[in-house]
Prior knowledge:
The chain is mostly helical and about 300 residues long. About 60% of the residues lie in helices and about 0% in strands.
Amino acid sequence: MTVSPTTIVRRRVQIDFGTVPPGPWFPAGGWIEVVFNAASISFPLAERFGIDALRDCRARIQDPKLLKEIGGFLHQEAMHDRVHTACNDMLARHNPRVIRAERVSARIFRLLSRTPLAFRLSVSAGMEHVAALLAEVVLQRDNELHDVLPAPVADLWVWHAVEETEHKAVCFDVHAAAVGTGFLAYINRVFGMLIATPLFLLVMLGIGAAVQGSPRPAPAKPPAPAPAIDGQPPDRISGRNILGVLRAAIPWRQYFSYYRPSFHPWEHDNSHLVTDWKARNPHFGLSPYSSASTDRVPDPEPSAAPVRA
């Protein structure tokens, strides 16, 4: 098991979405906002899917270091579930079509939850790899997101991206420990990624289509354009359509590296992005709830909020 250069920090995060306006938030990039919201709608059930898979196989793990990382992963994913559920409550108040989209997500993960544990682990590892790639995009554009998005929404996505990076190898390492590293385990891992990729991209676009179309008020004041850097326009995601974002922003070479038998998530070390964020936000989620140097913070349980009927 490759040694992780990051520490999985057990944060307690509370974000108040009560001040978030209906939107739209992104100027000239409505589909980007739709995909952000679609991701938030699908994440609580995706988090619970990964939590259940790791809990079900924790008894098979003997390595104490990996067991500690599993505990940190479970804590972080349960916290993501809670905060995204609060965000989704806000989205549902602004757009009733969110209820329909939640039902779509629930059906998909209900079906996946009935598959064998080895396959659920492989899908979870694949989803975590895609999530880590998208997290890197978010962390590289931290300032832009805080310029364009309402502060609670920007805080949600940047914090989530930090923790996706911190625990990006846990599901992969658990799959290797519980399923193995031989040829059949490799085939299982690849098959899981072939399910996780359309689950992340195509299904989220479908959920986005389900919530798209409701009339919303125009923003009261469009955000100011970012200043040019060295005479060149800034590399902004806010003015691109979703296909442009997927083509230009996502590191596809890293995505395809997952299909190599020798791959490990930390062969691409982007831990400096987490380190930089921690330096700018030293107390985020840590005070008065927890300390980065201890494991005394009790794990939150995943949100028990049912899908809205």
